[in-house]
Amino acid sequence: MALDVTTIMKVAAFAGGGFAMGMGAVGAAIGEGYTAAQANLAVSRNPKISGDIFKNMLVGQAVAESASIFALVIAILLLFLEVPTSGYIQAASLFGAGLCMGFGALGSGIGSGFPAAETCLGISRQPSVSSRLTTNMLIGSAVCQTPAILSMVVSLLLLFMQFKGIPFQPGWGAVIGAGLSTGLAAIGSGYGGGLAAGASCEGISRNPNTVANVTTIMLVGQAVAQTSSIFGLLISFILIFKSFPETQALSPAVALLSAGICMGFGGIGPGIGNGQAAQGAVRWVARNVDHAADLMRIMLVGQAVSQSTAIYAMVVSLVLIFVL
Amino acid sequence: MAIEGADLIKAAAFLGAGISMGLGAIGPGVGEGMVAAKACEAIGRNPKEAGLLTRTMLVGQAVSESTGIYSLVIALLLLFVV
């Protein structure tokens, strides 16, 4: 029984599609479940405004859902798209697209649940500022979705790029590594961005006058938390667009795969850590707005230190790509 | 296409370096973030001690960083020495 290119491509596309939707469903479901749980709590505290809370819960859950809808789109494309058979590397690239979107939806889905949940609780605490809270929630959870969108961009590139003439060895390592790099790094940034957004919704409900300061520091904190997923995107782009000389040896391909794994996992921790730092700063800006400048400064210093390991991971990835 | 022994060893060293640095970066990243969050909380509660708290935060983070540096050292050893 001979396995031709077409068969291998189908195998890779179906495996990738299953992985994308399977993993992609995890994050959004957790985030939405957390939102619904806190919405129940909020209704029990203040049953009179259950309509507002219910409406807000649905809006928040809809935003969290988008991460898994991205995964659904990629999975359907992988199942039904007729990709021209241009060699085994195309099969590796289809599988890489599935890996990227599957992991990439995880963090954003969970992260978007936090602002939605805190907004439901906040509305039960301060019904008068519900529209302000919903606006802040939408801004915060939109930023949470960016890592998932970056993953979708990389997945679509891997789906639609033509790899004609690019050698399978070491190209397979580059395309799978590209998928892993952005996909895994997106987990941390999505989750971390959610922590910051959740704290800001909680803070506004406790002290509505601080909304300008709180939203600003939330956005700064989230932006720093996004950097690790942008490092992942950078490594993915290098792996996709750089041309690598053909070789018979295994080690160059593994070096490229390993560069993606290194940057991907390396981005998870700093993304979450930066989000935690932003969460602490945002929460306390709402409680002690007079010292917002001090808090912003210490948040940025703390985030910079937490970011260092992502930079080590990027250095090792770049060494794996360019030096070895 | 036969894979030679030396090639396989090199491939394993590259993969090991990536996994070492990648997974090794998770712990310090999360841990240092926790330190920064608590430092923000502490400054929010007691802004007068901001200087002392910043120093404490940085020393604590530096200790937490050490495992990340071990991972980096092992990754570089795997890439260039072994």
CATH architecture grouping of the domain at 29-82 in chain B: Up-down Bundle
Low-confidence spans of chain A: none
* Helix-strand pattern of chain B: HHH
Derived from helix and strand composition plus strand pairing, the structural class of chain A reads: mainly alpha
Categorize the overall geometry of chain B.
rod-shaped
Distance between the termini of chain B: 25 Å
Structural class of chain B: mainly alpha
* Tally of structural domains of chain A: 1
Largest interface: A-B, 63 and 53 residues
Query: How large a portion of the residues of chain B is in β-strands, by DSSP E?
Result: under 5%
Largest sheet of chain B: none
Provide the β-strand percentage band of chain A. Answer: under 5%
The oligomeric status of these chains comes to: heterodimer
Overall average pLDDT of chain B: 92
CATH superfamily of chain A: lithium bound rotor ring of v- atpase
Helix count, DSSP H or I runs of 4 or more residues of chain A? 8
Give the secondary structure arrangement, pairings included:
The complex is a heterodimer of chains A (324) and B (82).
Chain A: H1 5-45, H2 50-80, H3 88-125, H4 130-160, H5 168-206, H6 211-241, H7 251-287, H8 292-323
Chain B: H1 5-24, H2 26-45, H3 50-81
Helix pairs in contact in B: 1-3, 2-3
Main traits of this protein?
heterodimer; A: mainly alpha; Four Helix Bundle (Hemerythrin (Met), subunit A); 8 helices; flat; B: 82 residues; mainly alpha; F1FO ATP Synthase; 3 helices
Structure in a nutshell:
Chain A is 86% helix and 0% strand.
Overview of this structure, please?
The complex is a heterodimer of chains A (324) and B (82). Chain A is built from eight helices and no strands. Chain A is mostly helical and 324 residues long. Chain A has one domain: Four Helix Bundle (Hemerythrin (Met), subunit A). In chain A, helix 6 packs antiparallel against helix 7 (251-287). Chain B is an all-alpha fold and 82 residues long. Chain B has a domain at 29-82: F1FO ATP Synthase (Up-down Bundle). Chain B starts with a helix and ends with a helix. The chains are: A mainly alpha (324), B mainly alpha (82). At the A-B interface, helix 7 and helix 8 of A face helix 1, helix 2 and helix 3 of B.
